[in-house]
Amino acid sequence: MLTTSMASLADEIKQEIGNDSFSAGESHARLLQLIEELKLAVETPTETILRLIYQPPENAALRTVVDLDIFSLLVNSEKPGGISATDLSQKTKAERELIIRLMRVMTSLGLCVSPEPEIYQATDKAIAMTQPIGRDGVPCIYDLTLPALSKLPEYLREHNYINPEEYSTSPMQWAVGKSQFEWLAENKSHQTRFNSYMSSRRDGKPSWYNVYPIDRLTAGAVNHADAIFLVDIGGNQGHDLGKLHAQYPSLPGRLILQDLPKILSKVNKPGIECMSYSFLDPQPIKNARTYYFRAIFHDWPDRICRKILLNTISAMNPEYSRIIIVDFVLPDTKVPRMQAAMDIQMMSIGAGVERSKKQWHDLLTSVGLKITGIWNCNPAMESVIEVVPLADSSEE
Ligand SMILES: C[S@@+](CC[C@H](N)C(=O)[O-])C[C@H]1O[C@@H](n2cnc3c(N)ncnc32)[C@H](O)[C@@H]1O
User: Fold this and answer.
1) What's domain 208-389's architecture?
2) Where do the O-methyltransferase dimerisation domain residues begin and end (predicted)?
3) Residue 279 Cβ contacting ligand 1 at under 6 Å
């Protein structure tokens, strides 16, 4: 019985690889899902449980290897056969025996290869580990989330398993004394890594305007020097807006980047105007064509999201302005693992939520907004949600 399901999964995998577009979008996501299913079919229940139990030490070893900058040493090594544990020890000042133990984990994770005992070579994954997504993402997310995640079961037990719904009493607040943005603001190096990770974590993936037909915004937009085409609210240091401007240098109207003052203090990007602003206050930019929020609402519980939305609605021209939200829309079944895990992470560090279509609908209608469309090119990726005030009847 089990063998039959393995064989049919293997057949489906073969077919999907035979599909010319297997490296792109939906087909790519389906292939990964099938591989996951095959792995579970092959593993015994005991093997599955042991694999899960031993994930935390893998992450701790990875965090240490990134700290020691070992991936850069592998990538930049000029020795054709690979770099030895002894060389790594000399260059990092970490004891050779420790290097060997850490590198066993890295090779088992497929982040480098070991063609001979105690010799290591870079792979494409090692190269990614030297770029912002790995170099900054690994320590950023580890240091930000682990203290709260390790205490989450205790928090939930002590709070009688209520669903965390207040940023100010989030599990992270309880465990660490701060929720995510206060914690980041307090430490410059954490904040710098966070900003770098934010700008890199979607590398190689389509941008929102490759998924969503941007002519829905450009057509009908007022085109004069003072008009505001798009406000990127909580846009960090403008990575999204910079790419939009590079792809569409002649959009009708101005592009405004809003975030907290500390985040914007050194931002200087051509074609983009910076404005310090907290979205917990009323939006000062009135009648923009687009109010754009990417990966903002998943940070916050419904009560605060409603506040942010009402602050935005107060600035909108209901017949003209649109809200564009880019965030995950969780499917009702078969939620991709990363999205399910991210939901628990957001719950821990600020009582945030990854939302299903129904949760988005309930949140948005509760403040007098409606969804006019949801666009997605890959179930593993964020969706683009277009939103207008309820009275507007431009739904298609
Ligand atoms: C998860 S990041 C998303 C950044 C960017 N939109 C993206 O998708 O890469 C959340 C952003 O919200 C900003 N933020 C947090 N609290 C804010 C507030 N009260 N007002 C404005 N921005 C805020 C953070 O500084 C951070 O840049």
Assistant:
1) 3-Layer(aba) Sandwich (3.40)
2) 60-126
3) yes
